[in-house]
Structures are given as structure tokens and as C-alpha cells.
Amino acid sequence: MKIAFDYAKYGSKLMDLIQEGNLGLVKAIKEFNPYKEVRLTTYAVWWIRSYIQDYLLKNWSVVKIGTTKAQKKLFYRLKQIQNNYEKMGITPHPKAIAHTLNVKVSDVELMQKRLASKDTSLNTPIQNDGNKTQSFEDFLEDKDVTQTDILLSEAENKNQFQLAIEEFKDDLTERELDILDNRLLAEKPQTLLEIGKKYGFSKERARQIEEKIKNKLKSFLSEHYPDISIN
User: What span, in angstroms and rounded, lies between the C-alpha atoms of 9 and 20?
Assistant: First the structure.
């Protein structure tokens, strides 16, 4: 209950947080090894926090908000760091926050946008026109799909794919990142032979590494961005 109280400020019901903490406690008991020099309470705290944090991230927004370690760190510490800067009379610039938390500036800017406001229902009243209450839904066009709609959808999908790629890059080695940027994503991709010469291995080995990266990307998208698919 004490741990749940620490996370009550994130907007979820306290009883829901306690219930998630109980699930974490059950998991800790199942995984606990009494022959290691660690107390059950010390070990259980980690699992309780983990379950509560995962619950908060999943329920904060219909859009996944914390899919990487950097994003999870920002979700829980961004406001605290910003408040600390403001107390010192300093405007919390994204670059300074990124340096403090050892994350990318782009991650800070993205999380600031995501936390700026929560999801809003299309049925939320926004205007009172005489006796008629209007909502966001009233301003949506009820027409067949037009060419403009298609272009906008394609642009949105492209932006989502770019966001997914930036998150995916965090889990790649330096060599895998190089092959992704200069082979798989480049407008004029390097040949497998060129990659092999660069790293001192055969063309076949370069092809194998390329396939490994593709499979990792497919698995990542399937888990974190199921609406995106690649060939």
C-alpha cells in the first residue's frame, strides 16, 4: 500500500494500484530464491514497483507512451526534473533535462508532448450553440475517403514508422545501426560486398546480419507497433 501511495499522483485509482502491486507480490513469491542472501521484502519491492509502473504506462493513454528504457525513465522523472529547475529559477530546456537523465533530446521533447494532455473523447462537449451542445465529433466530416484522406493517412503512417525506427535503434549495436542506416533505410543503399569489405567479412556474412536486423525489426514492430507491417 505504501508503494501504491507513491504512484497515486499519476491519476489512477489507488485500489487499482494496490491490486497491481499484489500481482507483483505474488510474482515475487514465485520467483524468490530463499538460498540467496536477499530478503523477500527487498526482492518483492522491485516486482511490486514494476507491476504498478507497467499498469500506469499502459493506462495513461491509448497510445503507447513508454516502450523503451529512456521513455520509461522520462515518464516518471520528467516532471520532477522540470520542477527542480523551476525552483532554481531556471527554464527547463529539453537539452538540459536530457543531459541530467542521460537520454536523447528528441526523447525529452517527445515525452513533453505526450504528457502535455491526456486523451480526449470525441464526445466531450466543447461548445454550446444555443440549446445545442457540440463535441469534437460534430466537426468530423462524414464523407467517403478522399485522395486527401489517403495522403494524410500515408503521412501519419510514415511519421509513426519513423518514430518506431528511432526507438528500434536504441537496441542495436553500432555495426547493426550502420547497416540499418546505410543499407536498409538509405535511398542509395550500400551493397553487401561494400559492407563486407568495411567490416572484414564475406558478402554472405553481411547478408546474414542484414536478415538478422530485419527479423529483429519485424519482432519489434509486432510487439510495440502492431499496426505497422514490413515486407
Answer: 16
Yes or no: say if 58 and 12 are a contact pair by the CB < 8 Å rule.
no
Q: Assess contact for 213 and 176: CB atoms under 8 A.
A: yes
Neighbouring-strand partners of residue 81:
none
- Those residues whose C-beta lies under 8 Å from the C-beta of residue 68, and which sit 6 or more positions away, are 107, 167, 170
- Fold annotation for 159-224: Arc Repressor Mutant, subunit A (1.10.10)
DSSP conformation letters of 117-171: S----TT-EEEEETTEEEEGGGGS------HHHHHHHHHHHHHHHHHHHHHHHTT
Q: What is the pLDDT of residues 16-61, one digit of tens each?
A: 889 999 999 999 999 888 888 888 888 898 889 888 877 876 765 5
pLDDT at 154 exceeding the cut of 70 = no
Q: Distance between CA atoms of 137 and 152, rounded to whole angstroms?
A: 19
